[in-house]
Amino acid sequence: MANDSYGSAKVGMKTVELRGFTGTVSGVSKSSYTQTHVDHQNRTSSTSTTNYTEFRLNAPDGSLQQLEVESKYARVNDGDVATAFWGNVGGKDRNYYLAVYNHKLGELGIIPSERNRLAGPVGHAFLIIVAVFAGVFGVFGVLGGSFAGMIGVGIAGGVWWIIKQRRKTLLDLVDSGVAQVKSGGRKAPQPMHTGAAIQT
Predict the structure, then answer these.
(1) Using DSSP, how many helices (H) and how many strands (E) does the chain show?
(2) pTM for the full model?
(3) Cα radius of gyration rounded to whole Å, the chain
(4) Across the chain, which distance is largest between two alpha carbons, in Å?
(5) Where are the beta strands (DSSP E) in 12-150?
(6) Given pLDDT bands bounded at 50, 70 and 90, which one contains residue 185?
C-alpha cells in the first residue's frame, strides 16, 4: 500500500507515519465467520460470530484498494466515499488497516487489533495481565499496610498510563488525518449516486 501521507507521530520508541487512500466505495459484500469453542470434554461451550464487510475503494486516477474489515468498524455502502488509513513504520507499510472513515456518514471506525499493535508496547497484552495482577495484589497489600502493595499499585498504574498515552497519541494522529480529509487537504472524489440505502 502507498498513497497520501497524513503526518507522523512518535509512539513510544518508534515513529508512525499515517497513510491513507480515499476512493468511492463499490462491490460491497458481507460475510461471517463463526468460531466454536469446545471444552476438555469435547462439549460445545460457546460460539462467537464475526461479521465482515468486503469492498473496493476506487480513486479518480483508476487506482483502487480492496478491503475486508469487521463490519462494525466500516459501515459503508456502494457509492459512499471513504478513506482507509494504515500505519507506516520504519519506511514500511503495515499490511493491516488501522481505521476507516466514511465521508458521507461522518463515521470513523478504529480497528482495535491494529491500534494495539501499532501503539504497543511489545507484549502489551501480557503487560496488561501483569498490571491487573499487580493492581489486585497491590490493593490487598495496601489494605494490609504493606509497602510492597503500594509498589504493586504503582506498577499497575504506570503500565496503564503508558498504554493509554501511546493509544491516545496514535488516535490523535488519526483524528488529524480525518480533519485533513474533511478540510480538503486531500481531495476526495465525488460520491456516485447509486440509490443505495444507508444501513442503520
Answers:
(1) 3, 8
(2) 0.74
(3) 21
(4) 68
(5) 14-38, 44-58, 64-70, 81-89, 92-93, 99-102, 107-110
(6) low
Kindly report the CA angle at 117 between 4 and 64, in degrees rounded to 5?
30
Predicted confidence at residue 36, as pLDDT, reads: 82
Residue 69's closest CA among 99, 93, 48, 95?
Answer: 99
Confidence of residue 196 (pLDDT cuts 50, 70, 90): very low
Q: What is the mean pLDDT of residues 7-14?
A: 90
Helix (H) or strand (E) holding 11: strand 4-11
CA distance readout (Å), 68 to 45, 145, 177: 29, 53, 21
The number of residues making up the chain comes to: 200
Q: What angle do CA 62, 68, 73 make, to 5 degrees?
A: 110
Give the other-Cβ count within 10 Å of 61's Cβ.
8
Contacts (Cβ under 8 Å, ≥6 apart) of 116? 124, 125, 167
**pLDDT digits 0-9 by tens, 92-148:** 998 899 999 999 999 999 999 999 989 876 545 554 555 554 445 544 454 455 545
Q: What is the DSSP letter of 29?
A: E
